[in-house]
């Protein structure tokens, strides 16, 4: 679960706490019954309550999907045995791939986006390249280096690598 989901979950939990306290106080007859009935009678025809209901339903569905992991994995299981599981984080894989790509002569400002799936890893590399570097040869070298290194280190196959050069200019410019 990412940071935005955690913030939403915190706010949602606070709201549910307020609603729960209100329900407890109502059941203990702290609020007169006429106040509760007047509140309930004010709901039909009020678009504010409809908007609030739609927002709460949307947040509930979002948190449900985030909780069961439908919104994307942040780690990949490398192995599982009697002594436990081994996971590697998405950020660790992205940083490692960026370091591998920057080892290639003429490549700099590397940013990596990895998509972790059960059948393998899908990678997009955004980078800059210096003028005069042969792009087809360099991209082939990056792909081979990344695929071999990731397979050797994690045991997981890199299914696809997409390389996007955002600039062709010298590092010193």
Summarize this entry quickly:
The chain contains 5 helices and 5 strands, in the order αααββαββαβ. The chain has 173 residues and is an alpha+beta fold. A hairpin with a 2-residue loop joins strand 1 and strand 2 (84-89).
In N-to-C order, the SSE pattern is: HHHEEHEEHE
Return the CATH topology of the largest domain. Answer: Alpha-Beta Plaits
Mean pLDDT: 85
Helical content class: 40-55%
CATH architecture label name of the largest domain: 2-Layer Sandwich
Uncertain residue ranges: none
Number of domains: 2
The structural class is alpha+beta
Question: Can you give a write-up of this model?
Answer:
By secondary structure, the protein is of the alpha+beta class. It has two domains: 3-68, no CATH class; 75-168, 2-Layer Sandwich (Alpha-Beta Plaits). It is 51% helix and 26% strand. It has a three-stranded mixed β-sheet with strand order 3-4-5, with helices on one face. A two-stranded antiparallel sheet has the order 1-2. Helix 1 (3-27) crosses helix 3 and helix 4 crosses helix 5 (135-154). It is elongated and about 80 Å long. The relative contact order is 0.10.
